[in-house]
Amino acid sequence: MLSRLGALLQEAVGAREPSIDLLEAFVEHWKCITHYYIESTDENTPAKKTDIPWRLKQMLDILVYEERQQTGAGEAGPCLEYLLQHKILETLCTLGKAEYPPGMRQQVFQFFSKLLAQVQHPLLHYLNVHRPVQKLLRLGGTVPGSQTEKEEVQFTTVLCSKIQQDPALLTYILEGKKMVSRKKSSREPSTLPREAANIPDKDDPHSKAPDRSSGGAQALSPQPPAEMEEPGGGAADSNLITSLMGLCKSKKGRVALKAQENLLLLVSVASQAAATYLVQSSPCCPAVAEHLCQLYQALPILPGPSRHCRFRGYQLEVVADALAKAVAEKLFVEILQPHLLHVSEQSVLTSTALLTAMLRQLRSPALLREAVAFLLGTEPQPAAPDDGPRTLCAHLIGHCDHLSDEISITTLRLFEELLQKPHERIIRSLVLGHLEGRHYVARGSPEPESYEDTVDLEEDPYFTDGFLDSSFQPSAKHPPAPLTNLDGKTAVTEIVNSFLCLVPEEAKTSAFLEETGYDTYVHDAYGLFQECSSRVAPWGWPLGPTPLDPHEPERPFFEGHFLRMLFDRMSRILEQPYSLNLQVTSVLSRLALFPHPLIHEYLLDPYINLAPGCRSLFSVLVRVIGDLMQRIQRVPQFPGKLLLVRKQLMGQVPGEQLDHQTLLQGVVVLEEFCKELAAIAFVKFPPHGPHLHLSPPREGHV
Predict the structure, then answer these.
(1) 179 forms bridges with which residues in the sheet?
(2) N or C: more exposed end of the chain, with fewer CB within 10 A?
(3) In this protein, which residues make up the domain named FHF complex subunit HOOK-interacting protein C-terminal (predicted)?
């Protein structure tokens, strides 16, 4: 049609007289549509089998062509003025609601979408455009499985795109259904009134042309939205949000996905005023949170690997904060927390696994703050050894030492995921808050300049003469007095050697197999340490621990419930299932990677002078080794069985049940964990310059 109109008008330009009147054609098409309702008596013929779709297409083509021919920028042509003044969109909206002829609503949605997308003149500011747009939105998104879902999501896509281009439109489109001081006569009619058709005199198609000097000017000038009711009133009926939320529930995957994308686009509007309106005067945040809760409750009992709850950040803090608070209140507190504290093991297991998956997908800083506050509490409280599980965090730490190994493993994974999030309060609440003050270090004597002045391992309160087996003593003693670098600092090589030599030779099997060397751990530790260092860099951590005052009296030290649980679990490594041991050591490795001097000292310094009654990670490992040496005496053919178990774990030989299998698997994990700790210490404090130039030492020696 546009090409034919163009050809005709090009010919008319040469004659300097138009051979076709666009307004006349436009009015004629509209008149034919309205006459159908006056003259037709067949109520069963579908709309697509009438000439209504063709007439609407011709009207749209005329509007688009007219706009292209306009010389004055921003001016509305006669056909567009006619559409606005005669409330054609209002009439079409009423026809769509009546769904007469059948399928008319689909035609109306298509016409609105194409009109708003193809006409460049700003339309949504006009009262006679944004009011029928609001009414049309209320017709869709309410009934799942509607025949017009495809057209509805296309319509909302156009609206969200327009709002993104001009955020000021948000207040026009999100206007509520209930308005203050709205006149009764302006309410949507339930049937099509005869005068609404605006049928012109057939002999004078210009008889209803716009009159700019009369009341028609109100429809032709942009109008602000009517005054909104106070929150809790009409705002609850805002319908672009509710329409999108309804479409998100569609069983048609493409429709639901497009609706979710439109919702994301809407909440990413780069306008402070629009974002404030979205948060304060629309049900957006509660609706999104409620939809998220419904998705959570619709998940199967056991979470599948393909089901994810993805959280993303939004451009404006005001939207992000409000949405995060709504999600925290509705999903975290009202749904997840009762499940996490439930007596049913299945409920605890499922909710913990889903929460871990959510944390893994979480990208929004605002939602991360809410998640941290939910898990760790709003205010840090110093914990005492005899404190009961008063907070959710304390309950979760207790779940890490649950009678159910599956719950313990799942909850440990939750904490491991939490430790990888860029929020300082996580590591401070779980670990650093208890290490500050260095009360785990013995007072009363000055700190040594080097490790030459430190005590032997046998002086550790957990490492007594009676505890040691004679065959273990040569391997348990720390190496000769460590060397110091030129700057006077202790060489890290001594720390590395301490961990590598901790497991006695008769309990080592990695040397007999390939691809289990220490250098592999160095490579992996380097990448993880760089990642962790980048994440914590903005937190401004000190480079070294605060010097101790030798005259300060000793005070009781408590490592905190989290470290105590990990140390207790580590002390039982020879008695626990293989998968549980892997998860415990994985969490401890994550902790050791943090570049904080107190963490390095407490977890990776074998030569620390511990205060009486205190334990460190190294002292726990020493006790485990002592226990191992006693157990070895009771296992016949221990070296051969140990090597067989390692080959089974690596998949080199078929798995078969052996006596003492849990013990043997624990020994393998213990050896690998000591190598991993040595590698972490090596990359955190390299003996020779930058990390990039490290050459990993031979296994067992530095």
Answers:
(1) 228
(2) N
(3) 559-651
The C-alpha angle with vertex 234 and arms to 233 and 236, in degrees rounded to 5, equals 85
Note the pLDDT tens digit of each residue in 443-471. Answer: 765 554 443 344 344 444 444 433 333 33
| Dihedral pair phi/psi, residue 185, rounded to 5° | -70, -15
DSSP class per residue in 131-183:
HHHHHHHHHSSSSTT-TTHHHHHHHHHHHHHHHHH-GGGHHHHT--SSBTT--
Look at residue 46 and tell me whether its pLDDT is greater than 50.
Answer: yes
Across 267-403, where does the E strand assignment appear?
none
Structural tokens at position 381? 């409280």
Q: For residues 115, 117, 118 and 120, what is the CA-based torsion angle, rounded to 10 degrees?
A: 100
Question: Looking at 144-153, 225-234, 381-390, 657-666, which range is the least confident one?
Answer: 225-234
Residue 209 is predicted with a pLDDT of: 44
Residue 33: how many CA atoms within 13 Å on its side-chain side?
Answer: 29
284-340 confidence digits (pLDDT tens) = 888 788 888 888 888 775 444 333 445 454 556 788 888 899 999 999 999 999 999
Q: What whole-number distance in Å separates Cα of residue 409 and Cα of residue 356?
A: 12
Distance, in Å, from the CA atom of 670 to the CA atom of 155, rounded to the nearest integer, reads 61
Contact partners, residue 551, CB within 8 Å, separation at least 6: none
Residue whose tokens read 């009517």: 226
DSSP secondary structure string, 250-262?
Answer: -SSHHHHHHHHHH
Per-residue burial over 273-295, b = 16 or more CB atoms within 10 Å of its CB, e = otherwise = ebbebbbebbbbbbbbbbbbbee
Find where tokens 């099997």 sit. 509
8 A C-beta contact, residue 79 and residue 70: no
Find, among 399, 680, 702, 400, the residue nearest to 530 by Cα: 680
More confident residue, 162 or 280: 162
The tens digit of pLDDT for each residue in 401-412 reads 999 999 999 999
- φ and ψ at 503, to 5 degrees? -80, 125
Tokens of 358: 């959510």
Q: What is the pTM of this model?
A: 0.73
DSSP state of 103: T
Other beta carbons within 10 angstroms of residue 494's beta carbon come to 22
Q: Are 339 and 351 in contact (CB under 8 A)?
A: yes
Eight-class DSSP state of 505: G
Return the closest-CA partner of residue 424 out of 355, 486, 500, 369: 369
Strand partners, 228: 179
The per-residue DSSP string of 11-39 comes to HHHHHTS-SS-HHHHHHHHHHHHHHHHHH
Higher pLDDT, 540 or 168: 540
d(CA 221, CA 227): 18
Distance CA 675, CA 680 (A): 9
Residue with tokens 């999030």: 421
Report the alpha-carbon distance of residue 99 to residue 47 in Å, rounded: 9
Q: What is the mean pLDDT of the chain?
A: 79
Helices (H) and strands (E) in the chain, counts: 31, 0
pLDDT tens readout for residues 365-384: 999 999 999 999 887 666 67
Comparison of pLDDT for 428 and 245, the residue scoring more: 428
Over its C-alpha atoms, the chain yields an Rg (Å, rounded) of: 37
State the Cα–Cα distance between residues 193 and 204, nearest whole angstrom. Answer: 22
Between 237 and 52, where is the model more confident?
Answer: 52
d(Cα 146, Cα 109) in Å, to the nearest integer? 13
